[in-house]
Write a structure and sequence with these properties.
Strand order of the largest sheet: 1-2
Strand content: under 5%
Shape: elongated
Distance between the termini: 12 Å
Oligomer: single chain
Structural class: mainly alpha
Order of helices and strands: HHHHHHHEE
Helix content: 40-55%
Radius of gyration: 24 Å
């Protein structure tokens, strides 16, 4: 029975060759120079030095299109970051400059991977969201499978290394 299901599945997938073999992920283009300011601001606000520049570009673009409060004022906040070396000092300066909401929205975006709220929210990161980083070495990012995001892009396991299927055990009174 399983053999027939496998043949049917394979026949169905043959119509979609891109699903049968892992395609290399498209390499993102280099981030524009304008991202340097947003990336530096993000690093200052989150106190994380190793943020992904591509994610920063996506976040900045989504922020500018989102209608998030004061989204266009991020360059003002970036200017404050240059003179406030810690996240706490920068948040205090942002509060005094009336930019605390924007600073909080940027921090929330990095931690959740989402810009905005409600139905208009835009997901810009999932696996790279900062909320998953403290447990990255022990837990996979929550998905519908237990192998983490994009698990199917890895090479499949060697069939010779897999253990054979256990024999079927018939329940009393059942015939096989």
């Amino acid at each position: 029975m399983l053999g027939l299901a496998g043949v049917a599945l394979e026949a169905g997938l043959l119509a979609y060759p891109s699903l049968l073999c892992a395609q290399p992920a498209a390499q993102p283009s280099a981030a524009p120079v304008a991202d340097d300011g947003f990336l530096a601001l993000s690093r200052a606000l989150t106190d994380h030095a190793h943020l992904n520049p591509v994610t920063a570009r996506r976040m900045r673009d989504a922020l500018e299109r989102s209608g998030v409060r004061q989204a266009g004022d991020w360059p003002r906040l970036a200017a404050l970051a240059a003179s406030h070396p810690t996240a706490d000092a920068l948040m205090a300066a942002a509060r005094q400059a009336g930019l605390q909401d924007l600073a909080s929205d940027i921090v929330a975006a990095w931690y959740t991977g989402t810009v905005g709220r409600g139905p208009a929210a835009v997901v810009v990161a999932y696996e790279d969201a900062l909320m998953y980083q403290p447990v990255r070495d022990a837990l996979t990012v929550p998905t519908y499978c237990s192998y983490g995001p994009l698990w199917w892009t890895a090479a499949p396991p060697d069939p010779a290394a897999m253990s054979p299927e256990p024999p079927l055990i018939a329940s009393p009174g059942a015939t096989l």
